[in-house]
């Protein structure tokens, strides 16, 4: 069974999973870091729902890059907008795990709206001048 070590703020969370029996959470690709994290209650941000439309699930692979699916063009294009991009960066919603891997959460991710928040981009919080 593959083993994933998630490192966040110096704390390691190790998860072993069976890709054949693990339920698909409908976020990201089946067997991706995001899918594994959701199944094992690892808080991996995913503002776009795992549709490769943001970089909030950006992870840095420390070990086991060869145990991941190949990067597709849409992931590479999206990663170009990630803060703290490295040559071993991957999106958690797109990288499918095939063996043991260690990943680290970068210090910052590009997330303009936290899940459960109330900010609507493009909408002003100023009251409309109704006298016009």
What do you see in this structure?
With 132 residues, the chain is an alpha+beta fold. It has 2 helices and 5 strands. It has a 5-stranded mixed beta sheet. The protein is globular, with a radius of gyration of 17 Å. The relative contact order is 0.22.
SSE blueprint:
Elements (H helix, E strand, L loop, with lengths): L2 E6 L2 E6 L16 H7 L18 E6 L9 H7 L9 E3 L9 E4 L28
Parallel strand pairs: 1-5
Antiparallel strand pairs: 1-2, 3-4, 3-5
Label this structure with key terms:
132 residues; alpha+beta; 5-stranded mixed β-sheet; globular
Describe, in short, the structure shown.
The chain is an alpha+beta fold. The protein has helices at residues 33-39, 73-79, and strands spanning 3-8, 11-16, 58-63, 89-91, 101-104.
How would a textbook summarize the main sheet?
A: 5 strands, mixed
Mean pLDDT: 86
How many helices? The count is: 2
Secondary structure: helix percent: 10-25%
For the secondary structure, the number of strands is 5
How would you describe the oligomerization state of the chains in this entry?
single chain
Instruction: State Rg.
Output: 17 Å
The SS-based structural class is alpha+beta
**Gap between N and C termini, in Å?**
66 Å
Strand order of the largest sheet: 2-1-5-3-4
């Amino acid at each position: 069974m593959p083993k994933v070590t998630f490192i966040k703020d110096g704390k390691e969370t190790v998860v072993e999973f069976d890709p054949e029996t693990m339920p698909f959470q409908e976020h990201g690709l089946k067997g991706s870091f995001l899918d594994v994290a959701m199944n094992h209650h690892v808080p991996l941000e995913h503002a776009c729902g795992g549709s490769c439309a943001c970089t909030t699930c950006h992870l840095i692979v420390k070990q086991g890059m060869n145990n991941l699916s190949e990067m597709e063009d849409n992931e590479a294009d999206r990663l170009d907008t990630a803060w703290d991009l490295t040559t071993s960066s991957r999106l958690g919603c797109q990288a499918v795990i095939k063996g043991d891997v260690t990943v680290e959460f970068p210090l910052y991710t590009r997330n303009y709206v936290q899940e459960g928040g109330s900010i609507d981009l493009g909408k002003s919080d100023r009251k409309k001048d109704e006298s016009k």
